[in-house]
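User: Before I run my own analysis I want an independent prediction to cross-check against. Here's the chain; please return only the structure tokens and, at the end, one sentence I can use as a sanity check.
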Amino acid sequence: MSRFRLTVGSKLALPHVHTACLAAISRLGWTIAGIAETRITCQELVEESLSALSPVRVAIVLAAESRWGH
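Assistant: Structure tokens:
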């Protein structure tokens, strides 16, 4: 399984970014593996016919704008 970590900073409030990320994951049809206030872990679905491929697991970390120095 491949693993990636992505940090997302935004001018929007964290709850709004959290909601947007969950909507995007849902639209992709990925499985949500874990949800916390500032972190969402999800995993792509791999068709059974492609079982030789490893699914990708992504950890999305939400950060307040001030952390990014904007």
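Sanity check: The chain has a mean pLDDT of 83.
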